[in-house]
């Protein structure tokens, strides 16, 4: 009988992930804004993000050996601790953080790399194809809940405390939440790795004719192209359009609430046979919802775009994530190489993010007008359609099954 419920360890991992999301949502939403206010430079934000993405990918690859051969829980905790160290550094540097944007990006990238390599392996071990969509639905729901409350509270605090004092308060609050999540992580079972880490595994998979990862990898990279720009540019664009942190917080509250409902619905209702149609609806609509920005980049059109994205993103991202992990667990051999495959998956995301961000770094020095930024967002926003095309054989195979 298929096991669709989540066990105690899965629930505890969801709590740790949720706290990590809350701490990052409290402060992470406003880090690009904080750097932009200090520098008035879109390029500086771009270089911060590039150093973060590149370091995250490199950390994934290097930490993969630790997670494969030793106690992966320590990697998870190091990631949380380094995230706290990142916000502590921003806190201590204050407005001078703009001078150290690249080192700060490297520190944040290391934190994300250590956390997510361990998290993804643990997630794979405590879920299976029958309850993976349910876990991803709950994870998206908790992430959305964090996005509803945390940035809204942060925006109100920053506005009411007149900027710098407010930023210091929310960065400190994030540090406290990171500390709580580290403590809770000790209730997760110790998970010692097995086998020897293969440094060349990813390249070997992609060089092998007929290997399914030759289609999965570009599909994941297509997801990364969009993420590379949207993860920081949307919030920054909202702030530049309104010059008000509380409005950015309200924007996050509204869009995250819509995402919460959508993640709950898709996570509950999505079946394997419907993944192909679900992904197609998702990838088309997250491109369509950008169109209002061509009329005017205002708080209203940005809100329409945000609501539309939040509504349709789960249709795309839940089956995308679940299918990638199903492929990792397709056989006993691939399951034994789960750490290497998770590193390969992350490499696809990082390469995609770097490609997307490179387009940002090329376009913005030439033209940083609202129209140019909208065209950039539209160009990278429709790339996931290519990802759906690469995923089609996997989705059709499941549909027939």
UniProtKB/TrEMBL annotation:
InterPro entries: MFS, MFS_trans_sf, Sugar_transport-like
Subcellular location: Cell membrane
One GO MF term attached to the UniProt entry: transmembrane transporter activity
Keywords noted in UniProt: Membrane, Transmembrane, Transmembrane helix
Transmembrane segment boundaries: 41-63, 75-94, 100-123, 135-154, 166-188, 217-242, 248-265, 277-295, 301-321, 342-366, 372-391
GO-annotated cellular components: plasma membrane
Primary residence: membrane
Stored Gene3D superfamilies: MFS general substrate transporter like domains (1.20.1250.20)
Coiled coil regions in record: none
Stored SUPFAM superfamilies: MFS general substrate transporter (SSF103473)
Entries under PANTHER family matching the protein: INTEGRAL MEMBRANE TRANSPORT PROTEIN-RELATED, MAJOR FACILITATOR SUPERFAMILY (MFS) PROFILE DOMAIN-CONTAINING PROTEIN
Record protein name field: YQGE family putative transporter
């Amino acid at each position: 009988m298929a096991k669709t419920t989540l066990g105690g360890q899965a629930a505890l991992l969801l709590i740790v992930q949720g706290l990590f999301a809350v701490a990052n949502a409290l402060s992470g939403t406003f880090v690009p804004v904080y750097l932009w206010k200090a520098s008035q430079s879109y390029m500086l934000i771009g270089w911060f993000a590039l150093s973060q993405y590149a370091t995250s990918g490199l950390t994934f690859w290097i930490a993969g050996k630790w997670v494969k051969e030793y106690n992966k829980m320590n990697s998870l905790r190091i990631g949380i601790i380094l995230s706290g160290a990142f916000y502590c550094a921003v806190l201590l540097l204050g407005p001078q953080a703009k001078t150290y944007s690249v080192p700060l990006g490297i520190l944040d990238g290391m934190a994300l790399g250590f956390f997510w390599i361990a998290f993804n392996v643990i997630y794979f071990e405590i879920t299976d194809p029958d309850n993976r969509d349910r876990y991803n639905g709950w994870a998206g729901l908790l992430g959305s809940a964090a996005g509803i409350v945390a940035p809204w509270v942060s925006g109100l605090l920053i506005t009411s405390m007149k900027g710098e004092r407010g930023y210091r308060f929310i960065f400190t609050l994030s540090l406290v939440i990171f500390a709580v999540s580290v403590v809770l992580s000790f209730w997760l079972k110790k998970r010692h790795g097995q086998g020897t880490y293969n440094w060349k595994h990813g390249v070997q998979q992609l060089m092998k004719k007929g290997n399914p990862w030759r289609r999965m990898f570009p599909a994941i990279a297509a997801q990364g192209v969009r993420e590379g720009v949207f993860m920081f540019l949307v919030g920054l664009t909202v702030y530049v359009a309104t010059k008000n942190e509380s409005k950015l917080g309200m924007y996050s509250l509204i869009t995250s609430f819509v995402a919460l409902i959508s993640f709950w619905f898709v996570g509950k209702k999505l079946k394997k046979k419907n993944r192909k149609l679900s992904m197609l609806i998702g990838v088309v609509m997250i491109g369509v919802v950008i169109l209002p920005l061509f009329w005017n980049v205002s708080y209203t059109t940005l809100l329409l775009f945000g609501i539309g994205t939040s509504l349709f993103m789960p249709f795309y991202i839940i089956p995308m994530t679940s299918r990638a992990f199903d492929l990792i667990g397709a056989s006993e051999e691939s399951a034994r190489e789960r750490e290497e495959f998770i590193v390969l998956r992350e490499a696809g995301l990082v390469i995609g993010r770097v490609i997307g961000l490179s387009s940002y770094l090329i376009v913005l020095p030439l033209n940083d007008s609202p129209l140019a930024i909208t065209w950039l967002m539209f160009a990278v926003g429709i790339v996931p359609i290519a990802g759906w095309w690469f995923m089609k054989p996997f989705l059709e195979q499941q549909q027939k099954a």
